[in-house]
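In response to the reviewer comment on reproducibility (Comment 2.3), we provide here a single inverse folding case reported in full, input and output, so that an independent group could reproduce the run without further information from us. The structure tokens appear first.
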């Protein structure tokens, strides 16, 4: 059984995920500008429905953490089992958000263990949970783990076991941009670009290889070095990067999922 507190955490995580979906212009990723085309409208709607389909699983993860009370192999196994069931439900709702489910699930569980903890403490607790092996996981290697082994990339598992460094960087970027007077959309875009600039995105590595990944990272750094999305030069660089990635069909989905994790942690003090 889930409690009201569990449901609140789950809804906050879903809101973070749908919040990043609403950002525009989002380089290489679906955003509201795409809604004029029928096919992309269907894709965007599918992503929103899939995000909402995560809520029961995330609430169950929070409940499991509250019941367990501490990071243990038992909790890790329960989260893995809930996550696989949730992936199936999300698939029925249209698919997507697999990487975001991993990040948000760990962060929601870590928050449930200590609702008064600060963002960095939550990330540290999530690292402790992720450090345990999931004995119930399928034996066959996933695409992400195969790419991680091939290129030495951290991947989603490595990111979690390192305490979500890119989530922390996104939180720092949000704070800096807001302090500088950026709009909320601009601050979130700068946070996304901060993640994109250094993340070894295994999905991108799979689709376009190391050269393509470096191209995306350099493009994101270029926007930030031009002053970020709140400046004229940064906005022009962002427009050029967005057009380039959409034309190539390259999608930095791993960065979007980690931004959602940062937006979830960022919202906690207001809950």
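Designed residues, in position order:
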């Amino acid at each position: 059984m889930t409690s009201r507190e569990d449901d609140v955490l789950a809804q906050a995580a879903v809101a973070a995920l749908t919040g990043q979906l609403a950002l525009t212009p989002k380089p290489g990723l679906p955003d509201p500008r795409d809604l004029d085309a029928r096919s992309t409208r269907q894709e965007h709607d599918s992503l929103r429905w899939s995000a909402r389909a995560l809520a029961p699983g995330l609430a169950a993860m929070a409940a499991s953490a509250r019941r367990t009370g501490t990071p243990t192999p038992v909790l890790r196994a329960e989260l893995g089992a809930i996550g696989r069931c949730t992936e199936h439900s999300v698939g029925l709702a249209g698919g997507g958000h697999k990487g975001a489910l991993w990040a948000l699930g760990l962060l929601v569980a870590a928050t449930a263990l200590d609702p008064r903890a600060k963002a960095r403490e939550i990330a540290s607790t999530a690292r402790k949970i992720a450090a345990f092996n999931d004995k119930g996981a399928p034996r066959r290697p996933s695409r992400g783990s195969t790419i991680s082994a091939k290129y030495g990339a951290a991947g989603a598992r490595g990111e979690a076991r390192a305490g979500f460094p890119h989530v922390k960087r996104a939180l720092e970027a949000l704070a800096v941009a807001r302090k500088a007077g950026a709009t909320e959309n601009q601050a979130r875009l700068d946070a996304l670009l901060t993640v994109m600039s250094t993340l070894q995105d295994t999905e991108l590595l799979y689709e376009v290889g190391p050269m393509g990944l470096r191209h995306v990272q350099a493009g994101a750094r270029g926007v930030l070095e031009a002053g970020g999305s709140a400046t004229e030069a940064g906005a022009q660089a962002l427009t050029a990067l967005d057009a380039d990635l959409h034309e190539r069909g390259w999608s930095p989905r791993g960065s979007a999922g980690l931004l959602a994790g940062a937006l979830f942690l960022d919202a906690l003090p207001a809950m």
